[in-house]
Design a protein that fits this description.
Largest sheet: 8 strands, parallel, barrel
Oligomer: single chain
CATH class of one domain: Mainly Alpha
Structural class: alpha/beta
Organism: Larkinella punicea
Distance between the termini: 6 Å
Mean pLDDT: 97
Number of helices: 25
Low-confidence stretches: none
Bound molecules: acetyl coenzyme *A, the ligand O=CC(=O)O
InterPro entries: Malate_synth_C_sf, Malate_synth_sf, Malate_synthA, Malate_synthase_TIM, MS_C, MS_N_TIM-barrel_dom
EC number: 2.3.3.9
Family: Belongs to the malate synthase family.
CATH superfamily of one domain: Malate synthase, domain III
Pfam family, one: MS_C
CATH architecture of one domain: Up-down Bundle
Shape: globular
Strand order of the largest sheet: 2-3-4-7-8-9-10-11
Number of strands: 14
């Protein structure tokens, strides 16, 4: 199969696009069409639900999981072959997450992120190819390059790691009162390496198939990571582990399963060698948890409650229902209405035995706090972070995600104190599939819905769009009103947390959220209906604050380049009657573009395509083909 690689990248990244990797990509090209079809099906289901105003439902027990010979009822009963949990995944108290590359940085600087991760003392680290990894220029390839250098213990990486270890110890001496790393070379072997491939909904920016169709990013990410690193990982006695994001249905899980089988077969690995965690980030997936487990069979090891994407997916799935209105984002914790019920289904699903009595893992969701700020601010936020982790541990999670290496030794003691490697097989009632269960998954409860909440949504959404344009798909952000206030910490924001903010604003504008509190500054009262005018007023005010902010919070150069583009995108997303399915689409088509007029044309093109043809634009609009690889 022919591949077309953009510009001269085959040459400049020949350490990533190795012959073996290109051969595997060529062999997997047939999956491209299958993925594109699955994504068209997704959009159609979404459009049909909106048109007919229908909710997501459970699958018919007698039906087969699409793409498999497994009956839904069998999956629910655990009548399928799952996986034994490998030794290096048995204890995953803390998994850190983060990108393995930085924007516009030489390798010696960019690879520092991998050193922080592998020296952090986290039980596992999910190196991100998706929501936290910037995609400007060639970042997805830099990410792959850095991981390969680190996993192969290249001297370039080891030199950086030695230096970073000293810096980390300086911080931990002052913050924790002790060194966090005693022997940096030994420490590098501690953390299980995990990679998150991009979801099925995204296209790679650098490779197309023979027809000129962009290759699905999932194929590219999984293939490059596995092919380039499987031997080194296995030689070190490590598992090959992926996180799979944003799966919506068991049928999509079956596509992933077949893709992984084909990849294993291509490079001579026994079927089921690659292990996967699945992020439960979609309302539809929560209706099909056992079915997804079954479809992934021997590859599947566990679920993660990917809470931020999840909130967005519920908002998106319920966009047609005028009564479904989320409150302030700060109120949507894991114990809030539909979130509580979602978490409960995940823990029940992983603790249902399969055919051989195997259970699966539940890794708790993301803790977005970072311990940087005033002493009082850090103390208060860390208390909350530890309390949140303690709650998840008690509810049955075998571990947690943190967004920064500084958080590892703050949250890990929650599990250290308990001491059990995991909570595999803890008793919970079996899943049921009643109307009441389905209703619980969209349960809204009364909670603050106010102007402070709206300002927070607007300000961070604009800053997030700006950071994305600068190549930082994750960034530490806070609302502009709190710039300079060290008692309020910056929180980790990434594609997921950025997107929910706009989704909630869309609900408030189009469904007329009723404010719960008076706001003297705008003169609105409890009972005021949120409107487009109110949104426009808040956006104008918050944008002005960002223009006036110091460079520490809003890069000066971004104020005339990526920030106005972020504003244009936020406005179109929030004000369009037709809700875009993914915020990232509008951001992606403007990657590497700093011109507002060009951006406006692209945004218009996207919206016209969506409204008129019911299609998304996901390809790299700046793709310049060179000679094909055959
Ligand atoms: C909802 C979800 O999908 S969650 C999963 C996806 N999200 C993520 O993975 C977010 C991960 N976190 C991050 O990317 C970062 O912590 C951020 C962007 C939030 C904050 O980063 P910064 O503002 O650079 O933090 P800070 O200045 O304290 O970082 C200090 C150093 O640690 C590095 N670092 C910080 N966090 C991480 C991380 N998670 N992984 C690797 N390195 C990190 C920074 O790059 C920086 O390196 P340097 O010394 O070479 O400059
Ligand atoms: O991807 C993770 C999430 O919390 O969303």
């Amino acid at each position: 199969m022919t591949l077309i690689i953009r510009d001269n990248l085959q040459e400049t990244y020949k350490d990533v696009y190795t012959d073996e990797a290109l051969a595997a990509l060529s062999a997997l090209v047939p999956f491209n069409q299958r993925i594109k079809t699955a994504m068209a099906d997704r959009l159609k289901r979404r459009a049909d639900r909106q048109k007919t105003k229908t909710r997501i439902t459970f699958l018919e027990p007698e039906s087969l999981i699409p793409g498999t010979a497994i009956a839904v009822q069998d999956a629910r009963d655990g009548q399928f072959e799952g996986s034994v949990i490998p030794a290096d995944l048995q204890r995953q108290w803390i998994q850190g997450t983060g990108p393995a590359a930085k924007p516009n940085a030489p390798v010696e600087n960019s690879i520092r992120n991998v050193a922080y991760a592998l020296l952090s003392g986290a039980d596992g680290w999910m190196f991100d190819g998706e929501d936290a990894l910037g995609q400007i220029t060639t970042m997805s390839l830099d990410n792959q390059r850095n991981l390969k250098l680190a996993i192969h213990k290249d001297p370039v990486f080891l030199k950086v790691a030695e230096q970073v270890a000293q810096e980390m110890n300086r911080w931990s001496n002052s913050f924790l009162g002790r060194e966090m790393i005693t022997d940096w070379e030994t420490q590098l072997n501690f953390t299980t390496k995990i990679f998150r491939a991009r979801g099925l909904h995204l296209d790679d920016r650098h490779i197309r198939d023979a027809d000129g169709t962009a290759l699905a990013a999932s194929i590219v990410d999984a293939t490059l990571y596995v092919v380039n690193n499987h031997q080194a990982l296995q030689k070190a006695g490590s598992s090959i582990v992926l996180y799979l994001p944003k799966i919506q249905t068991a049928g999509e899980a079956a596509v992933w399963n077949d893709l992984l089988d084909a990849l294993e077969s291509q490079i001579g690995l026994p079927a089921g060698t690659i292990k996967v965690y699945v992020l439960v980030e979609q309302l539809e997936a929560t209706h099909q948890l056992m079915e997804i487990r079954a479809a992934l069979g021997k590859h599947f090891v566990g679920y993660n409650t990917g809470r931020w994407d999840y909130i967005n997916s519920v908002s998106d799935a319920m966009a047609w229902d005028k009564t479904f209105i989320n409150p302030n984002i700060e109120a949507i914790t894991m114990t809030y209405g539909y979130m509580r019920n979602y978490e409960d289904r995940v823990r029940r699903a992983v603790n249902t035995p399969d055919l051989h009595g195997n259970f699966a893992l539940w890794q708790g969701g993301m803790e977005p706090n970072i311990p940087v700020g005033s002493e009082a601010g850090v103390a208060a936020s860390m208390e909350k972070a530890v309390a949140g982790a303690g709650r998840e541990q008690r509810e049955g999670a075998s571990g947690k995600w943190v967004a920064h290496w500084k958080m590892v030794h703050i949250v890990r003691p929650v599990w250290e104190k308990v001491g059990e490697a995991n909570q595999l097989g803890r008793e919970f009632p079996r899943l049921t599939y009643t109307q009441a269960d389905a209703d619980g998954l969209i349960l809204i409860e009364p909670a603050p819905t106010d102007i402070r909440g709206a300002r927070n949504l607007v300000s961070v959404a604009l800053q997030y769009g700006n950071a994305f344009g600068q190549g930082m798909q994750a960034a530490a952000l806070k609302p502009a009103d709190f710039f300079g206030n060290d008692d309020i910490l910056y929180l980790m924001e990434d594609m997921a947390t950025g997107e929910i903010r706009l989704s909630i604003l869309w609900e408030w504008v189009h469904k007329g959220a009723v404010l719960t509190d008076d706001d003297p500054e705008t003169g609105t009262k409890a009972g005021t209906v949120f409107s487009e005018e109110l949104y426009q007023k808040l956006v104008a005010e918050e944008y002005e604050k960002l223009l006036k902010a110091a460079s520490k919070d809003v890069y000066e150069s971004s104020k005339t380049t990526t920030l106005p583009i972020a504003l244009a995108i936020a406005n179109v997303y929030t004000l369009s009657a037709v809700k875009p399915p993914w915020f990232i689409d509008l951001l992606n088509i403007n990657l590497n573009n700093l011109d507002l007029d060009v951006a406006k044309k692209r945004i218009q093109l996207y919206m016209n395509t969506l409204v008129e043809d019911g299609k998304r634009i996901t390809e790299n609009l700046d793709f310049v083909a060179t000679s094909p690889y055959v």
